[in-house]
Amino acid sequence: MNLADFIEGDLSGLIDDWTSYALALSQPDSMLSETQLRDSAAEILAAIAVDMREGQSAAQQRTKSRGDKDTAESGFDHVARCHAEDRLSHGFDINDVIAEFRALRATVFRRWQKTSPAGAAAFQEMIRFNEAIDQVLAESVRHYARRTESIRDLFAGVLAHDLRSPLGAILNAGEVLLRDDALSPSSVRAVAFVQRGAMRMRKMIDDLLIFTRSRLGGAMPVSFTPQDIGRICSEAVDEVRASFPDAHIDLQVAGDLRGRWDGGRLGQLVVNLVTNAVRYGSGPVVVDAASHDGRMTLVVSNEGNPIPEQALPTLFDPLTRAGVPNRSGTAAGMGLGLYICRCIVNAHQGTIGVESTGHTTRFTVCLPCTPS
Asked: Which of 191, 45, 195 is nearest to 105 (CA)?
């Protein structure tokens, strides 16, 4: 009896053994139950039996052995997705999911061995079964991880959104208190500290909202209106100087810097780039803005140690940093600054890149003056 026929013929016994084995493997505090273990076992085993009966070329076998995923949806996708979402909804962790498949593999081989299979044909069927079970496991883990990330991002987005209201109340209350002439000098300083801290929190919350929106598939909202990059850069540099009073920042502008952009987003872009240069560089920071042939180019450069070459490919990824800040000042953020910059540039149909050689690091942004 070949292995596919054996799986279908002994399905009930396999499910019984798999359930007992998986329960024995599970952690004491696991939420696995016998009923929950059995619910998708028949679908998984049936899908594996169908796969083992299908023809398989040498190229397809190499693809499976490397863990590559075909562009077309495989026969395991639906089963793996349902299994992962069910386990996640019942509170299983990823170790429980892996334990189930480990138990399934051991159970099938142990029971099939009793039928005394032998020879090269049996060996090839074992290879084919291992390929199938590994593919189901990989796809189930992939769906589990993707769903977990989505839930986490949604939670972070909701939390950031809900924090904006009480934070706005703190900022408004601070404005009212600062207008009170009866406040003592020490009280004025205390309120000013509260306001600066609240404004810092607001920036972090805004960054987190952009991050979660992009992770959940939403585009960054932008509103294009007539703007002047020279003015935007000047205001952004002043904002950074307020946080880093010892920083030396030179602003150089040339040409007609008018265009249609989202002024608030571009201000955020410049602040993030200049803050990054001040925080991680040494010596003066140069902000250079110019326009040519309907495109605006913004270059923010700083002196200091170069960014490690291995960090460059992921520099614009979220929650990453290239090194330790060299300057004191506002506390480092969540590692979203350069990721937010990339989101802003993409929303303006532009490009952003970085060069770091010798003792100079240069971030270059190119934007169309009138995005479509």
From this structure: 45
Average pLDDT in the 81-92 region?
A: 78
Concatenated DSSP letters of 213-250 = HHHTTPPPP---EEEEHHHHHHHHHHHHHHH-TT--EE
pLDDT greater than 80 at residue 218: no
Q: Distance (Å, rounded) from C-alpha 33 to C-alpha 273? A: 52
Q: At 362, phi and psi to the nearest 5?
A: -130, 120
DSSP state of 288: E
Most confident listed range (52-56, 238-242, 259-263, 320-324): 259-263
Sequence-separated (6 or more) residues with CB below 8 Å from residue 20:
none
The answer on pLDDT for 27 being more than 90 is no
Q: What is the pLDDT of residue 40?
A: 75
Section 143-172 average pLDDT? 81
The tokens of 221 are what? Answer: 């909202």
Dihedral, 57, 62, 67, 69 alpha carbons, nearest 10: -40
Q: What is the mean pLDDT of the chain?
A: 83
How far is Cα 93 from Cα 115, in angstroms, rounded to an integer? 35
Domains of the chain: 1-218 (no CATH), 225-368 (3.30.565.10)
Q: How many CA atoms lie within 13 A of 249 on its CB side?
A: 29
Distances (CA, A) of 33 to 3, 22, 92, 280: 28, 10, 10, 52
Radius of gyration in angstroms for the set of CA atoms belonging to the chain, rounded to a whole number? 29
Residue 300 pLDDT exceeds 70:
yes
How does 308-318 read in b/e, with b if 16+ C-beta sit within 10 Å? Answer: eeeeeeebbeb
Q: In what order do the strands lie in the sheet with 351-357?
A: 249-254, 282-292, 295-303, 360-368, 351-357
Report d(CA 183, CA 84) in Å as an integer: 59
Q: Which two tokens stand for residue 251?
A: 């602003």
Q: Mark 242-270 as b/e (b = at least 16 C-beta within 10 Å).
A: ebbeebebebebeeebebebbbebbbbbb
Q: Is 165 helix (H, G, I), strand (E, B) or coil?
A: helix
